[in-house]
Amino acid sequence: MAMGAGFGGQILSDIILDAGH
What would the DSSP string read from start to end of the chain? Predict the structure, then answer.
């Protein structure tokens, strides 16, 4: 989540969360 927030991203965070779960 820290990484996603680093380069931009609620979108990235959402994708990571979706993939992670």
Answer: -HHHHHTT-HHHHHHHHHHH-
Residue type, 21: H
Amino acid at 4: G
Which tops the pLDDT comparison, 20 or 13?
13
Which residues have a Cβ under 8 Å from the Cβ of 16 and sit 6 or more positions away? 1, 4
- In the chain, the N- to C-terminal Cα span, in Å, equals 13
Q: Tell me the whole-structure pTM to 2 decimals.
A: 0.28
